[in-house]
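Researcher: I'd like a structural prediction for the single chain below. Treat it as a standalone chain; there are no partners to consider.
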Amino acid sequence: MSFAKLAKPKMSCPLRLDQLDFWPWDAGDAEGALTVWTEALALLPEPRRRWEALLWLNASIGDAERERGNIEAALAAFEEAAASAGMEGVTNPFVLWGIGACLYDLGRVEEATDPLPRAYMLEGEEIFEDSDPRYLEHLRQRGLIDR
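Model: Treating it as a single chain, here is the predicted structure.
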């Protein structure tokens, strides 16, 4: 599906998240999902950072890149998500978790100690449910959360 077809003249932004095609991701096709989401990014009007879709597209791209093992690319996408849509990006627990997990996986453990507890404060242990338990253990060892 081409995202060019999603542009609607009456909408201020041609993309709506409920119109995005997530079937490649849902089918386990990270590469296909990256293609779809990258095409969608290209359709966002300038200034792109004002659109909430930029946050969710970049967070989705970050998740897919992590899935593929491209941690540097994932970190860049999560950081772009954090910088978008005003304060929504820096207060989004999934984005914070993504940044922290990537930093941790890249061996930048001290830097990970900032976004990981912020994700925990916003969403609780639930944000860590589907991830490696070492991230929560890191926070416990630092005394940042209860055991």
